[in-house]
Amino acid sequence: MSGADGTASYLTAGTSLRSWLLTRDHKRIALLYMVTLTFFFLLGGVSAGLVRLELVTPDGDLMSADGYNQAFTLHGIVMVWFFLVPLIPASLGNFLLPLMIGARDLAFPRLNLLSWYLNVGAGLLVVYALVAGGVDTGWTFYTPFSTVYSNSHVFLAAAAVFVAGFSTIATALNFVVTIHLLRAPGLTWFRLPLFVWALYATSLMMLLATPVLAMVLVLIVVERVLGVPVFDPAQGGDPLLFQHLFWFYSHPAVYIMILPAMGVVTELITCFARRRVFGYRFMVYALLGIAAVGFLVWGHHMFTSGQSAYASVVFSLLSFLVAVPSAIKVFNWTATFYRGTIRLTSGMLYGLGFVGLFTMGGLTGLFLAAIPVDIHVHDTAFIVAHFHYIMVGAVVTAFYGGLHFWWPKITGRLYPEGWARFAAILMFFGFNLTFFPQFILGYLGMPRRYHSYPADFQVWHVLSSAGSVVLAAAYLLPMAYLAWSLVRGRRAGANPWDATGLEWRTASPPPVHNFAETPIVDGPPYAYHPPTDGQGPT
User: Where are the transmembrane segments (predicted)?
Assistant: First the structure.
């Protein structure tokens, strides 16, 4: 496959393993990330499957209590730090950012490759911790259990997350510098695609929040290995200090996951509604507003932890405030459909699924911002359902939507659209069947992290576990037909969706240096016109 100017595409310019492992091409590095992300997705999915299988019956008869603790801890650590946080930025973001701003590559190609190696090294530490006996603290590493009482491999897990944090910082720094310095002529700030704005806001959050996580992980190791009393109350330490530091990172981490997904879905909706994004500047300000206010709401995780009542009230009000820019985005996505020529492609179905799941997750977040409700459902299955709607349902649905949208650009191949639409609908149905019953379970009082429970709750757990089977099928099905498309799929043109954006001005797949000549931007983004009978997947 060749580029528009006859040069080899990035896929065929050197096919040896060495050429891939030492590449500095952002597109190849994105594919390397996709391989490792797929591995961690499967690993996290298997551990989640064990959890759901255990919960089919009220008695803890599949795993011991310790084994169950290790299963959900592995699931949380792998899915949060090795799948969800890097999912869209490291894969789609890495591939598309230079293309979308008319650049030949990211600002620091070697640093980009190093970020992948750091991610792989951190992942190997997690796998070794699993093989050596596992971790039982939960993904939050709450002290003093993680520093004093746990006999599992906390040190290895903390070290893995610490190293993964440096991979995140390297990617974020690369994105920020690239967006500032390498935009094509005429591509002013308010001509940037909203996916680029989302990556920019996310990168700023990564740069500001991740060092705090690294610091608190170091303090865990200092107390656990060296015996310095930082968090242990028996020796004068303060366990609440850990929670403040941990959630100062980990609540912004929710927006680190969701902001790139918002950017992806905006690209899907505007393309397949054939309309310019409604309120473009408001969408930009909403992205930046979420990134800013997201740093001020960590205390709503601690309403039952003993912080002062005044602090709880302030964090409650701020938590309601962060819903405002999120609501602006939902309104603007909805308004973009008005008088549009809507095409219900698989990409659009994934985008609509995201809006539904994100809205459900956001509304239940308002429940948790209310102190009395939060106290009632704290540490119950309600919390599990809420953050899965945001962090897994919405984010992964958006990723699959973006993968289908840009698959022809990435591979030069088209996939079977009928199967893709079926997978999108199945994913939405399977996710709701899995997690909506957990809202009911949590309201009724089912604690999280328990592997045995009263028999009255069984019917809801059976529904949830049955839904997880459907959801797993929906996640695996696209892997099958996308792999098939690599061999049997029809060849894609440069712009099969008749979309705007600089990435559609080059060949599919792109040549090594993206563009034969640097493109020039002379108009606003999303200048859509009435649809043509363009080529698309069949």
Answer: 30-51, 71-101, 113-135, 155-182, 194-222, 246-270, 282-303, 309-328, 349-371, 383-407, 419-440, 460-484
